[in-house]
TrEMBL record:
Residues 37-97 form the HTH tetR-type domain. Keywords: DNA-binding, Repressor, Transcription, Transcription regulation. The keyword Transcription applies. InterPro entries: BetI_C, Homeodomain-like_sf, HTH-type_TetR-like_transc_reg, HTH_TetR, Tet_transcr_reg_TetR-rel_C_sf. Residues 60-79 bind DNA. This is TetR family transcriptional regulator. GO terms for molecular function: DNA-binding transcription factor activity; transcription cis-regulatory region binding. Gene3D superfamilies: Tetracycline Repressor, domain 2.
Length: 236
C-alpha cells in the first residue's frame, strides 16, 4: 500500500471521461480519492471485487476496467491478463501470510499457534483476500500453468515455516515424534483447505468461534501415544 501523500493529478489518462447526459446536468464526478489511488492498486481492488461477485471465469477484463474506472488501454499497461492479476494478488499477500507465523512463534504450543492463526484469519482480524477467493484461486492454480508457480512458491514458503515449528514441537514431546512431519503437514493443509471451502458453502458458519474445539480435535490427533498403566494386581 502506498504510504506517501497522494498528489492531485491534473488528468488521469486511464480514467474514462464520463458522458454528459442529454438533460444538460453534469454527471457526478468520481470520488477524488478513487482517482488519486495508485492505478495498479485500483486494478487489484477492482479485480478482487469482481472475482468475489462473479468468480474468476465469470469476470471479464472489461468488467474490471469498469470497476476500476479505467480504459482497457490503461489497465493493460499494468496487467496483460486476468492471470497476471491473480498472480499479483497471491504474491502481495505473501507478507500477510508470513505475519501469521508471528502468532505461531508467540504461542505456548504448536496446536495453540495453529488455533490462533485460524482465529485471526477466519475472524477477519487478519484480512486475506486469498482466503475469500480460496476455492477460485485453488481451482485456477491447479489447471493454469501461468498461475501455479507463484501459488506453489507461496504455499511452499508457508509450509516450510510451519514444518519447522512442527518438528520443534515433536522434539519437545508435544507432538507424537513417531509421526512423519510431511504426512502431518498434508493433514493440516487438508483441514485448512476444507474449512475455507466449507465457509464458501456456508458463509454464516462461524469458524472463528469453533476454532478452540477444532484445535482440540487436532491436538488429540497429534498427541503422543500414552502408555497404558498396569493395575496393581497385574504384572503383564
Amino acid at each position: 500500500m502506498n504510504t506517501h501523500a497522494p498528489r492531485l493529478p491534473l488528468a488521469d489518462p486511464g480514467v474514462k471521461p464520463a458522458a454528459t447526459p442529454h438533460s444538460g446536468v453534469a454527471p457526478a464526478a468520481a470520488p477524488p480519492e478513487k482517482l488519486r489511488r495508485d492505478p495498479r492498486r485500483r486494478v487489484l481492488d477492482a479485480a478482487i471485487a469482481c472475482f468475489t461477485r462473479a468468480g474468476f471465469h465469470g469476470t471479464s477484463m472489461q468488467q474490471i476496467c469498469t470497476e476500476a474506472g479505467m480504459s482497457p488501454g490503461a489497465l493493460y499497461r499494468y496487467f496483460p491478463s486476468k492471470e497476471s492479476i491473480i498472480v499479483a494478488i497471491v504474491d502481495e499477500e505473501r507478507a500477510v501470510r508470513m505475519s501469521c507465523l508471528e502468532l505461531l512463534d508467540s504461542a505456548p504450543g504448536f496446536v495453540e499457534g495453529l488455533a490462533r492463526m485460524g482465529q485471526a484469519l477466519f475472524s477477519g482480524e487478519t484480512p486475506m483476500v486469498t482466503l475469500a477467493l480460496g476455492p477460485e484461486i485453488y481451482a485456477e492454480a491447479a489447471r493454469n500453468p501461468a498461475l501455479k508457480p507463484t501459488f506453489d512458491a507461496v504455499e511452499d514458503e508457508m509450509n516450510a515455516a510451519i514444518r519447522v515449528h512442527l518438528v520443534a514441537a515433536q522434539a519437545r514431546g508435544e507432538i507424537d515424534p513417531s509421526l512423519d512431519p510431511d504426512v502431518v503437514m498434508v493433514m493440516i493443509n487438508a483441514i485448512g483447505d476444507g474449512l475455507v471451502l466449507r465457509q464458501s458453502f456456508e458463509p454464516d458458519l462461524s469458524l472463528a468461534q469453533m476454532m478452540p474445539a477444532l484445535a482440540g480435535l487436532i491436538g488429540r490427533m497429534l498427541a503422543p501415544a500414552t502408555t497404558p498403566t498396569l493395575s496393581p494386581d497385574r504384572t503383564s
